[in-house]
Amino acid sequence: MESPFTYILITLFFSSILLSIIFYMTWQTMGKQKYALMFSLSFLASTVLWANALIKSLFLSPNLYWMIGCSMSMLSVLLGTWGHCLRTHTQIHPAALLMLGIIGMALTYYFTFISPHLGLRMSVYLYIDVVFLMITSIVIIRHRKQSRPAEIGTSIMHFLFAGCLFIAASIALSQGNKFDAELIKLYSIINFTALPAAYVGMSVFVIYMLASDLAEEMKLLAMTDSLTNCLNRRGFYVHAKQQILELQKQAQHVCLIYCDIDKFKAINDRYGHAGGDQVLVSISQMIKQHIKKDDLLGRMGGEEFVILIGRTCYDDAKSVAERLRSIINDTPIQYGELHISITASFGVVELSSQDVSVEQAINLADKALYQAKSSGRNKVVFS
Ligand SMILES: Nc1nc2c(ncn2[C@@H]2O[C@H](COP(=O)(O)OP(=O)(O)OP(=O)(O)O)[C@@H](O)[C@H]2O)c(=O)[nH]1
What we know:
Residues 252-383 form the GGDEF domain. Pfam families: GGDEF. With 383 residues, the chain is of the alpha+beta class. The protein has 2 domains: 4-218; 233-382, Reverse transcriptase/Diguanylate cyclase domain (Alpha-Beta Plaits), CATH 3.30.70.270. It has 11 helices and 7 strands. It has helices spanning 4-29, 34-59, 62-88, 94-114, 118-142, 149-173, 181-222, 233-249, 264-289, 314-330, 358-374; strands spanning 253-261, 296-301, 304-311, 333-335, 338-340, 344-350, 380-382. The longest helix is centred in the middle third of the chain and has 42 residues, at 181-222. It is elongated. The N and C termini lie far apart (85 Å). Residues 227, 260-265, 268, 273, 276-277, 280, 302-303, 373, 377 line the site of guanosine-5'-triphosphate. Guanosine-5'-triphosphate (GTP) binds next to strand 1 and helix 9.
């Protein structure tokens, strides 16, 4: 009858193979993101680690088995940390991570072969793993202002995993240089109960985090206009509702500006659909350049854009549309060798002091726009 630890190792071995395959397939199907490949390689290293633990007594000398186990453990955590740094665009040089791993290996080698010390031999690599896991936990939680639930969960799981390893390492170290059967028993209990649970929990949370990344990407795509890259109608409604509440709380003057390019059909007829598209892209870029980062720009369809702005001073808010009109009027759009002169009409509604919904505000601004069109175009009309 095999020891129960053997069965746990077999389970970990197969779980790691599966996780490595899952992340490899994620890498293949999710645009070959490097971090997914790192996660796959990380679980491959874990697979070697568990396989090494399973076959140790069959082929390897104890010291060789130990060095392979330590290096695979650190390699696995290092690759995972590197993957998380890539995903979060954290500027930690891989060489710094590699250096930490090499120091861990050198110290383990030293305390195994040169100046043998049981406690240090068993604990140094685990402490290095703890450092890697803590870096990962911090990197995940700190890379954006408001972390997603999946990121919070993944960060906590890395922290818990680091905690389990820290306890295991400290128990091993507290033996000193002499084998202590009681402490080793405790060390094995941590190693084969808390650690596998934390390991599997952490892996599942990483998968959940990547799935949540994908869901966010889809949501973003569903709210983005593919030609101009600004918000589409649906995206504008969703964001404008939140933004209006935010701005009104800050007692800002909120204006909704409806902008429609004049005689756009004629531009399409003269320069072709591609020329018309270029005009739409250039106009959206021009508007983005001349509004603030927090202002919202959406394309409502065709040649219609809508802008939501908040300004502390009412005159500032009112002047934005006039400034945009004048810039569009004065800036011909380059299309290949050609320069296309265009104008646009604007309808503006102020909604700071009124209890107006986005839909009503758009209707009012649209009516003002209609007046701007019917009174000769290239004009701004306030509702
Ligand atoms: N190139 C291009 N044209 C588009 C797109 N979406 C809509 N259009 C065209 O935009 C034109 C809009 O024309 P109209 O609604 O008649 O308006 P207009 O010619 O700008 O006239 P006024 O608004 O009255 O000044 C139509 O010819 C549509 O085919 C697009 O994504 N790309």
